[in-house]
């Protein structure tokens, strides 16, 4: 037995792959995966059989070939043998993957070919997973990566099919990937590039879901519908979003860029760009501090700008007692406005109105914080309070959720009020466009009122 093992590297070095990659266009991914594969054969000859059927198969010449060979091999492992005809012809399956990798016309999210997207996915695993050291292990063993490759191929079949007929091949690929890799991604879902499905187990992504570039999803994440609705019914997730283990995002709701969602959270309402939310139902606890939270992988939510009173507002009681009578009058006026807004924006969760969703509103804690600051802050002393902001939008007929969302977007320092530097025309326009249903004319009118 020892003699037999000692001979295997020599056999491998002379017979595998006709010099894999020698005739291919040289690139870093292709050179790296073949180098790592041959090093593995030399160091761990017991993996020769696996590599012979995957990365070092005779027909494999490029990184994309290596990915296709590996995923197809794993997809048919539950057949009698990977080389015998079963419920799906191995040669036909290989052909489907090769054709998809050659297609530069059908772009992922309108931007990337499957070839480009898969390379970005592999790089995302290497960059973000501290347990990953080689490109080879990503291709051979990472089920989140493999399931995503299968999805990209299935999605191409899905969108190419007639609107009248569903692609049964796409559904077969989905079913096999779910059974083998433990992730359920509908072939209709649109997924960007540079995605990390960490661990992968239990991830569910629905038919009409959109997942932007650069996102990271931990195990057990669900991007699902909210019942028996048909049509467009799944979340629309922006770029560079981090979704923690076991979190659920339900319904056709928008999740902005750079959002962080804590483990185990249940998100039922939209979240604005740059927000950090946690809980069941999820509530916003502050601003995301990183430019790319999906890359930094702050699963413990340490890099969060929590709501806080600034040094100036901490000493408000001292300031208020030293102000003039007119300033005190203004402060009282501000408090009365706050009480009015309190009734319309932060309704009591004890109300029996079936349409009242204040208990699941992600801004519920921030609204209370901003109104607390508004009641303390002497009017005009430090900037625009939430109550004043709501009053300015009164004539535009913005709904309560939109008002809080716009104010939160402008409150970059998370202090509960806005300075003039927070209210530049560009910042206000962006906040109102993203957070409200106001058109350009209404926004221009609001800007005239403010400035």
TrEMBL record:
Residues 340-356 have a biased composition (Acidic residues). GO terms for molecular function: serine O-acetyltransferase activity. It comes from the Eukaryota. Pathway: Amino-acid biosynthesis; L-cysteine biosynthesis; L-cysteine from L-serine: step 1/2. Keywords: Acyltransferase, Amino-acid biosynthesis, Transferase. Residues 1-25, 325-356 are annotated as: Disordered. Residues 31-150 form the Serine acetyltransferase N-terminal domain. GO terms for biological process: cysteine biosynthetic process from serine. Residues 12-23 have a biased composition (Polar residues). InterPro entries: Hexapep (IPR001451), Hexapep_transf_CS (IPR018357), LbH_SAT (IPR045304), Ser_AcTrfase_N (IPR010493), Ser_AcTrfase_N_sf (IPR042122), Serine_acetyltransferase (IPR053376), Trimer_LpxA-like_sf (IPR011004). Residues 325-336 have a biased composition (Low complexity). Transmembrane segments: none annotated. Its EC number is 2.3.1.30. Coiled coil: none annotated. Pfam families: Hexapep, SATase_N. Gene3D superfamilies: Hexapeptide repeat proteins, serine acetyltransferase, domain 1. It is an enzyme of class 2 (transferase). One of its GO terms (cellular component) is cytoplasm. Belongs to the transferase hexapeptide repeat family. This is serine O-acetyltransferase. It comes from Cylindrotheca closterium.
């Amino acid at each position: 037995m020892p003699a037999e093992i000692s001979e295997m590297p020599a056999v491998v070095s002379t017979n595998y792959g006709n010099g894999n990659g020698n005739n291919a266009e040289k690139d870093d991914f292709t050179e790296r995966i073949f180098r790592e594969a041959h090093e593995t054969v030399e160091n761990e000859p017991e993996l020769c059989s696996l590599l012979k059927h995957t990365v070092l198969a005779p027909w494999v010449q490029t990184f994309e070939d290596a990915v296709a060979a590996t995923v197809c091999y794993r997809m048919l492992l539950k057949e009698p043998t990977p080389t015998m005809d079963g419920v799906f012809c191995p040669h036909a399956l290989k052909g489907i993957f090769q054709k998809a990798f050659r297609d530069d016309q059908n772009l992922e999210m309108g931007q990337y070919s499957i070839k480009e997207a898969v390379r970005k996915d592999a790089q995302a695993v290497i960059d973000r997973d501290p347990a990953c050291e080689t490109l080879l292990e990503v291709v051979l063993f990472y089920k989140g990566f493999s399931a995503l490759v299968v999805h990209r191929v299935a999605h191409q079949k899905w969108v190419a099919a007639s609107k009248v007929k569903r692609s049964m091949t796409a559904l077969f690929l989905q079913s096999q990937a779910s059974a083998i890799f433990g992730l359920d991604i509908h072939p209709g879902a649109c997924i960007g590039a540079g995605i990390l499905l960490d661990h992968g187990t239990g991830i569910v992504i629905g038919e009409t879901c959109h997942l932007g570039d650069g996102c990271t999803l931990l195990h057990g994440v669900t991007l699902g519908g909210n019942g028996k609705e048909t049509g467009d019914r799944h979340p629309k997730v922006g770029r560079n979003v981090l979704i923690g283990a076991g979190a659920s995002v339900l319904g056709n709701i928008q999740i902005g860029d750079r959002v962080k969602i804590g483990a185990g959270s249940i998100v039922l309402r939209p979240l604005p760009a740059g927000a950090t939310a946690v809980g069941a139902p999820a509530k916003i606890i502050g601003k995301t501090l990183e430019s790319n939270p999906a890359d930094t992988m702050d699963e413990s939510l340490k890099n969060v700008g929590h709501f806080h009173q600034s040094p100036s507002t901490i000493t408000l009681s001292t300031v208020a007692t030293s102000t003039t009578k007119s300033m005190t009058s203004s402060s009282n006026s501000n408090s009365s406005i706050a009480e009015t807004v309190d009734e319309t924006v932060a309704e009591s969760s004890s109300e029996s109105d079936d349409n009242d969703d204040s208990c699941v509103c992600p801004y519920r804690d921030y609204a209370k914080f901003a109104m607390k600051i508004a009641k303390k802050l002497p009017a005009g002393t430090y900037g625009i309070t939430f109550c004043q902001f709501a009053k300015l939008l009164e004539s535009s007929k913005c709904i309560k959720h939109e008002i809080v969302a716009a104010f939160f977007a402008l409150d970059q320092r998370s202090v509960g009020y806005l300075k003039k530097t927070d209210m530049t025309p560009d910042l206000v326009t962006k906040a109102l466009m993203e957070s409200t249903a106001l058109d350009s004319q209404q926004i221009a009118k609001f800007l005239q009122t403010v400035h």
